Amino acid sequence: MGYFRAMHRVVALIGPVQSPFELGCAIEVFGTERPGMPRHYAFEVCAERPGPVPTTGGYPMAVVHGLSVLQDADTVIIPGWRPVEEPLSDPVRRALLRAHARGARLVTICSGVFALARTGLLDGRSATTHRSRADQLRREFPRVRVEPDRLYVDHGDVATSAGAGAGFDLCLHLVRHDQGAAYAALLARHMVLPPHREGGQAPYVPAPPPGGALDDLRTWADERLGTPLSVDDLAARLGVSPRTLARRFAAQLGTSPGAWLLSRRVAAARTLLEETDLPVEAIAARVGLSSAVNLRRRFRARTGTTPGAYRRAFRAP
């Protein structure tokens, strides 16, 4: 999917009884026009049956679009699903699976994970939700690896967030991935929110639970990206074998140590492109990618664009 298009279409799928706050998280980040800020997202709301939808606030919400608008969505957000026991109808399940199959990413806020889990797309993967619902999610979906201590978990094609407030964190994380750190930070300042609370290893790999050994390793590695770090160096830092380190990364992050380290180098390069005037050769040296040629190759593979084009699009004022 082309995340660097001029306008990214976001559609929120309303649940049987909608929480206004959880929907509001998505609206504030993706659907609110702000003076002086460029628009990168087109936002719409849909329901299986257009018309009045009850809300947890005790008033009905008028929804004009049906499931057909999901056909062109780049991102589909399920901002809560109440009651969580409510099954997915066949039309909703098919619409979500079709959207995912053609490349749309599916995102949930809080209890919305119950709807996504019913599609089967979370089987064998990690996911999060509000702590009060974690045990229920485990019981109903034993093939989902539930991690309630995470603010959010982003697998690229599917992403879940914890309590409703963590929906802001996940949405801003997605904006950071789509539009760059400078734009996401500016948006967060408009909303008077922290620009980036790390619930996943930005921008592509989810982070381990705070305070764990891999969290300490991440900090240690980030401070040494300009050096020729290797997987053996990471293993030695934790005092384990490279094979044990690989098992821990696979279990906690769903990736390999080498891929994780490369994602950190590319993330650091993005920040330097956004916030400095350093030439590409200097940035490559600072993030440990050795040369401008290597940086360009790795950067394009990860982001779908070149360092120069990325800087022109997302350079902070």
Feature tags:
disordered N terminus; 2 domains; 6-stranded mixed sheet; 317 residues; alpha/beta; Arc Repressor Mutant, subunit A; Rossmann fold
What is the strand and helix layout of this fold?
Elements lengths: L7 E6 L6 H12 L9 E6 L4 E4 L5 E4 L11 E5 L10 H12 L3 E5 L2 H6 L8 E2 L3 H10 L4 E2 L5 E3 L3 E4 L2 H16 L1 H11 L21 H10 L8 H8 L3 H11 L4 H19 L4 H7 L5 H12 L3 H8 L3
Give an overview of the whole structure:
With 317 residues, this protein is α/β, with parallel strands linked by helices. It has two domains: 8-191, Rossmann fold (3-Layer(aba) Sandwich), CATH 3.40.50; 213-314, Arc Repressor Mutant, subunit A. Helices cover 45% and strands 13% of the residues. It contains 13 helices and ten strands. It has helices spanning 20-31, 90-101, 112-117, 131-140, 164-179, 181-191, 213-222, 231-238, 242-252, 257-275, 280-286, 292-303, 307-314; strands at residues 8-13, 41-46, 51-54, 60-63, 75-79, 105-109, 126-127, 145-146, 152-154, 158-161. The strands form three sheets. It has a six-stranded mixed β-sheet with strand order 2-1-5-6-10-9. Strand 9 (152-154) and strand 10 (158-161) form a beta hairpin. Helix 5 runs antiparallel to helix 6, helix 10 packs across helix 13 and helix 11 (280-286) packs across helix 12.
